[in-house]
Amino acid sequence: MKPKYKIINKKNIYKGFFELNKIEFSHEKHDGTWSGQIEREIFGGAHVSSLLPYDPIKKEIVLIQQFRAGAISRYDNSYLYEIVAGIIGKNEKPEETALRECEEETGCVVKKITPIYSYFPAPGSSESFYHLFIGEVDSFDGKRIKGLNNENEDILVSTFKVSEVHAMLKNKMIKNGVTLIALQWFFLNYFKD
């Protein structure tokens, strides 16, 4: 199948922790004609692996909280409830990243990993692509702080009963997109009461 778009020019505008690119393109429209030239700034994004840590014996879910600069302008609490996630390393497979990140961010070792879905979280503005997994773990009591010192991570890790997480969803306490997708999938397709 031939592409239904033409890249006229792509230029890097900024390169730091992430990058920003300016793309000039045209695309085939639904009626078969071609659009005029369109210019967009596209966030370079990241190739990310994410994992929902779940203890099937205790029926508990492990969630994390860490400071997120992107939440500052829209949300008073910049410590969102999240699942495990991280950028996929150069020679790493998505599953390997999910396993590594789970141990780094929660201290839990994944005993069984199952793919859920792969998707674009915001294709109108970003090239990011996410892989989503569920991982069976042994949960723990209470809370603990994890993360890598060399990445300046300060991650609060907490274990919740499935019923508590379900109530958090109903009360709109989950504001992170990948976490919403994972938990909705969990309650629709995986968890049997």
* End-to-end gap: 45 Å
The rounded Rg comes to 19 Å
* Overall pLDDT confidence: 92
> What structural class do you assign from the helix and strand content?
alpha+beta
Strand content: 35-45%
Q: What's the helix count? A: 3
Write down how many β-strands occur, each being a DSSP E stretch of 2 or more residues.
11
Note the overall shape. elongated
What is the quaternary state of this protein? Answer: single chain
What are the secondary-structure elements, in order, as H or E? EEEEEEEHEEEEHH
Could you give a short account of the major beta sheet?
Answer: 8 strands, mixed
Overview of the structural elements:
The protein has 193 residues and is of the alpha+beta class. The chain has helices at residues 94-106, 162-170, 177-190; strands at residues 5-15, 19-27, 38-43, 47-55, 60-67, 79-82, 84-87, 112-119, 129-136, 143-146, 155-161. The strands form two sheets. Strands 4, 5, 6, 7, 8, 9, 10 and 11 form an eight-stranded mixed β-sheet that branches. β4 (47-55) and β5 form a beta hairpin. The longest helix has 14 residues, at 177-190. It is elongated and about 60 Å long. The protein starts with a strand and ends with a helix. The model has no long low-confidence stretch (mean pLDDT 92).
Give the structure's gist in a few sentences:
The chain is of the alpha+beta class. The protein is built from three helices and eleven strands.
Main attributes of the structure:
3 helices; alpha+beta; three-stranded antiparallel sheet; 193 residues; eight-stranded mixed sheet
